Structures are given as C-alpha cells and as structure tokens.
Amino acid sequence: IFFLxxxxxxxxxxxxxxxxxxxxxxxxxxxxxxxxxxxxxxxxLGRALEITPSNSRTWLIDPALIEDISDLVDGxxxxxxxxxxxxxxxxxxxxxxxxxxxxxxxxNRVVSITYGAPSQAFLGRIxxxxxxxxxxxxxxxxxALLNREVSAPGESNIEGQPALIAKNAYTALRKxxxxxxxxxxxxxVEDLRLGLAKTLNPGHSRDNALLISKSYSSAIKSVNNKLxxxxxxxxxxxxxxxxxxxxxxxxxxxVSLDLIITTTNSRVLVEDVPRITIDGQSxxxxxxxxxxxxxxxxSLRLQLYTPKGEIIGLEQRIPLRLAVISPVTTWLTxxxxxxxxxxxxxxxxxxxxxxxxx
Length: 358
Prior knowledge:
The protein is α+β, with helices and mostly antiparallel strands. It has two domains: 9-224, no CATH class; 227-322, Immunoglobulins (Immunoglobulin-like). Helices cover 41% and strands 23% of the residues. It is built from eleven helices and 14 strands. It has helices at residues 9-12, 34-39, 44-48, 63-73, 92-105, 120-126, 128-146, 164-183, 187-195, 206-224, 327-357, and strands spanning 15-18, 58-61, 76-79, 85-88, 109-112, 227-229, 234-236, 240-249, 255-263, 268-270, 276-278, 282-292, 296-305, 311-322. The strands form four sheets. Strands 7-14-13-9-11 form a five-stranded mixed beta sheet. The chain has a four-stranded antiparallel beta sheet with strand order 6-8-12-10, with no helix packed on it. Strands 1-2-5 form a three-stranded parallel beta sheet. α4 (63-73) packs across α5 (92-105) and α4 crosses α7 (128-146). It starts with 8 loop residues before the first helix and ends with a helix.
C-alpha cells in the first residue's frame, strides 16, 4: 500500500513507505506468523531496510506496524492453520529490524501514516471527525515509538475499499467506544478506539477482516461492560421503600455518571437519582426511593448516561413483585381478627358457665 503526499518529482525517488495490513487481533494475538516472516531477511519488510543511509529520504511510517513489530520482541502468540495458539518466546530479528530502522531514519524526515492505514476516503465520508482524531493520535504514537519528532499524517490516495464486514461493523463500534473514551481515558480504551482504524485497511482479505472486526467487537463489548449495574430481583411489601442499586466500575480511574430509572407501568413511582461518582475498581450502592401505588408485578429499567447525556453500557432490568396491603384492607383485616377473637372469647365463657351450671 503506497501513500502519496505532496512532494516534488526530485523527492519522489527518496520516499520510503513502511505499511502493511495488520494481522493482529484486538486481544494481542496474531492471525498468522506472516509479520515475523516479512521482517526477516528476504521478506518484504526486511528488504525495505536493505538500503544505504541517506540524508535526503522521507519516510512514511504506519505506527500500527511499528507497534506490531515491537510486540514480537518479547514474545507473542499466533494462530496456526487449525486456529490453535502457538507461543513464541522472543524474536531477535524484530529487535534487529527496529534498530536498523532507527539508524536509517536518524537524519531523515519522518511522516506518520494514519494508524492502521485505513481508507481515508471511507472515513472522510462517514466519520471525518474521527479521522482527525486518528491522525492526531497516530502522530503521538509514532513519536513515542521512535522517540523523536514526526510530522502528522497527510492525505493519502489508498486505492480500494474496506471489506464489507468491516464497513458494516465500524459505525456502531466507533460510536460505542467513543462514548466510553469520553469518560474513561485509559490506554486500553484508547487502544480499542484507535485500533478500529486498522479494520478499515483495504488490503485485508475478507477472512482477515472478519476475524479482526469480530475481535474488536468482542473486546469493545467486554470493556464497555466494565461500567455496569448489578442485577437484582425484589419483593416489596411496604408502600415506601429504598431500593438498593449497585453500580460497578472495573476501570482503574474514577467516573461520574447519571443513573436514569424508568418503570414499565404505573404501579410504582421512582424518584430521580443525583449524579454518582464511582472510584476506580470499586462499586457503590445507592438507595433509590420508590413509592408503591398498586400491588402486582412490574420492572424498573436502569440505564447509565455520561454527563453529556449519552447512553453508556447496557440497560439493566430489575423485576419487582409488589405485595403491599392498603390501609383500608389492613383496617378491615385487623377488625375482622378482633371480632373473631372476641367471638371466640364469648364462646369460651359460655362453655365455662354451662359446665358450672350442670
């Protein structure tokens, strides 16, 4: 995949591009061992560095590729043809490749490619704001990886479109992880948000696009579930009751959220809940005042929202069995019990008198 930037014809012969469709899943495993083969002597990426140093080159580098190669250094896992995990303890050629790259670029201009080399045409149509975020993060990521200043990504002329499965999955996943990232700024959340760009590389085969997209879907669902409401099932026998609701935060940083509760029918009234703040890796129990209007079965719908009013996490339903006796019924029942008790006493007294009379 080649990226074209506004350069003069004289510069074009000194342009080196380092990019390849990722074969790494969201959980860190590799679909195959092709990256290790590619950076080996004779491989595509290995040959790319078989050049003499020059002071007049411009390098276009995908930070996602450098991250993937860096992950090979201390050991990695890839899937064999049967889909089983194969563990590799370490890979010295990955260290050598990265060292060679650092040597070659030391006196050259380096320009970051958008993370994962996605189709900019596709992103420009459906998520231009997210493309801008990807570009900003790409520059920062590459600078951290290379420990030097680099230029931000420019426009690219990537031919082709992302795989259909990736395009269809992208929008919902992007919106979901973007909302989570608005309240949780940890690197694992940012990795997922940025990693979605990799699914849109037009160079993916259909099978690889399917595997990678599914892995990000599963990972985003899992990370979003770190903010959740604990389930419950209650029987309420009093007219006014403080319902205990537990909200869990498995992230390492604190978060402030709004809890909105609605009912499925008019048997119960629920008061508003003030904004809650949950410390990292903890849970909080709040008491929700409710008033029972009529006995029967109902449910509460509980949903977390960000302070900006965006839904975060899954809705939780809490079933309620309302078994409240009204004051009138209580009075009548009590009255009948007293009458029955008095009748029993009178009957007992009559029996005693009758026996004495005999």
